[in-house]
Amino acid sequence: MEFRTEKKRSERMKRNDNGILLRTDQLTKSFGGLTAVCRLNLRVHRGEISCLIGPNGAGKTTVFNVVTGIYRPDGGDVLFNGESISGKKPHQIVSKGIARTFQNIRLFSNMTCLENIMAGQHCRASAGVWSSVFGTSRQKEEEKRIRDVAESRLRLVGLWKFKDEPAKNIAYGSQRMLEIARALATQPKLLVLDEPSSGLNDRETEDLIDFLKSVLKEDLTIFIIEHDMKVVMEISDWVTVMDEGRKIAEGTPEEIYNNPVVIEAYLGKEEFSEEEGSYDGPAPC
Ligand SMILES: Nc1ncnc2c1ncn2[C@@H]1O[C@H](COP(=O)(O)OP(=O)(O)O)[C@@H](O)[C@H]1O
Ligand SMILES: [Mg+2]
C-alpha cells in the first residue's frame, strides 16, 4: 500500500486553525425521521487533498449537498474561509469558490464537450441582461473569456481532441474528467468530488490520481468522497471517516488504514446486512 502523507507529516504537525479552508461545526441534516448527518465537526485544510470515507449510507453525499447549498442544514454551521455559507444558494456558493462534481455524472449529453464547460461558467459572467440583449462589446469580451477558460480546461484534462464531440459520445472515464474540467472552469478555491473514480477502469483511475495530484496547487484544495481504498490511501493528506451520520475517525491515511474502529465499521456493516437482512438507519442524533 502506498501512502501519500509520510513526507508531509512534519508539515501537518505545524498546522493550525488558520490553515482551515472549510469546516463544519456540529452540522446536522435530517430527512424525516432519519438523521443522515449528526453533529459533524469536519476540517479541510488549505492546499491538501482531504478524503471523506465511510460505508454506504454513512451520510457522505449529504455532507457535500449541504456544503454546496443543495440542502439547508437543520443544525450547526458550514464555514468557508471563516465565513458562514450555510443556507446559501448553490450558485452563491460557486461564486464564493466551491465547485463540485456528482456521484452520478451530470453533463448536458447532447452539447459538445467545449459547450459543457462553457455552460458551467455563468456564475462568473458579469455582463448584464441588457448587454446580452443588444450583443454589446462587453458581452462579446465576456464570451471570449468564457471560451478561452473552457478551452484551457479542456486541454488540462486531455480532452481537447473531443472539443466538438457531444458529451454522450465520449468514454465514461472521459465524461468524469469533463465534469471535473467544468468544475475547474469556475476557478474554485475548493474542488469537491463525489466518488470520481466510480465506474473507471484501473488505467483511468491511475490517470485520475495523477491528474488530481498535478492540479493541486497552493490556491486549490480538494475534498473528495472516495470508495476505493487504494485511491484514498494514495491520494489523501487527511482522511475523515463517517458511519451512520457521525464522524468515527480522522487522521492520516496510515492512521486510518490501521484503525480498528474504521475496519469494524466497514466489516460490521457487511456482516449485519447478511445476517439481519435489514437496517433501520442511524440511532437518534
Ligand atoms: N434526499 C433525501 N431524502 C431522504 N433520504 C435521503 C436523502 N438523501 C440521502 N438520504 C438518506 O440519508 C442517508 C445518507 O445518505 P448519503 O448521504 O447518500 O450516504 P453516502 O453518500 O454516505 O452513501 C441514507 O440513509 C439515505 O437514504
Ligand atoms: Mg454517496
Helices and strands, in order, run as HEEEHEEHEHHHHEHEHEEHH
Q: Quickly give the structural class.
A: alpha/beta
Say how many strands there are: 10
Which runs of at least 5 residues are low in confidence (pLDDT < 50)? 271-276
Question: How are the SSEs ordered, and which strands pair?
Answer:
Layout: H1 9-13, E1 20-31, E2 34-45, E3 49-53, H2 60-67, E4 75-80, E5 83-84, H3 90-96, E6 98-100, H4 113-119, H5 129-134, H6 137-156, H7 172-184, E7 190-194, H8 202-215, E8 221-225, H9 229-235, E9 238-243, E10 246-251, H10 253-257, H11 260-276
Bound molecules: adenosine-5'-diphosphate and magnesium ion (MG).
What labels would you give this structure?
single chain, 285 residues, alpha/beta, Rossmann fold, 6-stranded mixed beta sheet, 4-stranded antiparallel beta sheet, 11 helices, 10 strands, binds adenosine-5'-diphosphate, binds magnesium ion
Structure in words:
The protein folds into two domains: 1-97 and 188-285, Rossmann fold, CATH 3.40.50; 106-186, no CATH class. 38% of the residues lie in helices and 22% in strands. It has helices spanning 9-13, 60-67, 90-96, 113-119, 129-134, 137-156, 172-184, 202-215, 229-235, 253-257, 260-276; strands at residues 20-31, 34-45, 49-53, 75-80, 83-84, 98-100, 190-194, 221-225, 238-243, 246-251. It has a six-stranded mixed β-sheet with strand order 6-7-8-3-9-10, with helices on both faces. It has a four-stranded antiparallel β-sheet with strand order 2-1-4-5, with helices on one face. A hairpin with a 2-residue loop joins strand 1 (20-31) and strand 2. The site of adenosine-5'-diphosphate (ADP) has 12 residues, from strand 2 and helix 2. Residues 31, 34, 36, 54, 56-62, 281 line the site of adenosine-5'-diphosphate (ADP).
